[in-house]
Amino acid sequence: MPKQKIVIGILANAGGVGKTTLAVHLAYEICKRGQTVALIDLDPQRALDVFCGLPSAEAENSVVRVLGKDFDGNWPLVSAWSDPNIEVCQGHPTMAQVANDLVIRRRGEYVLADRLKSHPLRHDVIILDCPATIGIICENAIAASTGLLVPIQLEMKSVSGVADLVQWLIGIADDLMLDPHPPILGLIPSLYDNSRAIHRQYLQQLPEVAEQLRVKLYPQIRDSSEFKNASANGLPLQKYRPAHPASKDFKIIADDIVTLARKGKL
Questions:
Q1: Across the strands, what pairs with 106?
Q2: H/E element holding 20?
Q3: Does 231 map to a domain?
Q4: Where in this chain does the record put each AAA domain (predicted)?
């Protein structure tokens, strides 16, 4: 039997929490460990285009084609940073229309999972960059995922809402009758600024929150203007400024995913 693909959904219930930053830098770290990676952009904002230095794609060359009724199995993939081992299925603004279509389609919540099963990608790890709004596109991501990551901004809205988000993720997995449920691999504090007292305060609270939710808490990913500078150049920070301390913040997560993948635990 073919080896099960590792599909990591990155979800949050708000924008600006660092989902795309996490997706891009995690993909780069995983690839450095000898794994091939596909990034699928499910967000109509298509921030992956910017982070990967890619020109905008037409709808027929984006994930819109994959989720369409007549998909023929020809995934529209482009290499990121001229590396054949990291490929991107680009997003498109018409994903909002796609979501409306999925609501009335049979197995509308399972379309992405069905595509990955019927027309599997060659990659070892697939990362789903999800939209900020909870809805049927995120439900597709959950149904397709073998594991979930939840970035949390160290602000009151994100921290106070993380329990509700985790319960929503579990509830959707129940409603979709997923067997097994995709495990929540961890909460990831993002955009952390040590100079801000409120960030330090919320960071101290998160271990108790994670323990109550029975979810792993990863070390924080720091905030840095260099992430914006790197994305403006279409590069991950590891390539743009490899010596920058923040470029190392993704290593533990990448190590865990690669270890689980090699053990067949996802």
A1: none
A2: helix 19-32
A3: yes
A4: 7-169
